[in-house]
Amino acid sequence: MNNKQLEGHDRLSRLRDYSTVNPEDFPVNSRRHQLLTIAVTALEEVDIQAAAQAVGLSTARESTINKKAARAALRKSMEAISRAARTIDIESSGIAEQFRLPHGDGDQVLLNVARAFATNATLLETQFVNSDLNADFLTKLGTNIARLQQMISAKHQHTETHVTATAAIDAALERGLKALRQLDLIMRNLFQDNEVKLKAWRSASRAERHARKDVPEPPPPTQSAP
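The structure corresponding to this sequence follows.
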């Protein structure tokens, strides 16, 4: 969770703790109890979604690493085929043009070219094997294509899990904090003549500030010598 989400979570957690110690302040069937229930339910939803958010983020990062490895493996297979094609091209002109490696780092472009390699190489399998490519080079190419596609899909899914959980956290916090704001007004009126209870409530309804990284100030501009 980001700092804003953590501060909202902290406020709702303090409210829940206060209500546990002071249940008499929230009598059943009262408006205070209704608002407390909304806030605590929202907090429980935040905790559930925060776990999903953390899992989505960690697995998305892991998928990025796995995708990079799958991409490297696929490109390595394609490079071997491209070199063999240039060998064949010496005797059968035009073969090398069918197996040119793509430029750039686009995953989909690499997949598209790899699939074209597989189609074209199927017709020339014997010549590639005679050029000392392993007999299973097409199987290996197909495996690497499928692996990269799988890693791309996995990364998209895990990223979506993280994004969806983040949105759910924001929605739950909005509900919970809205209830807390309403409850705060009621409690301040309730305890207006009880300084001890009012002080305790104010402490419970505040949020701790979560430290943010300081951004260094830019150096002063240098002045040219006269």
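The longest helix spans residues 31-89.
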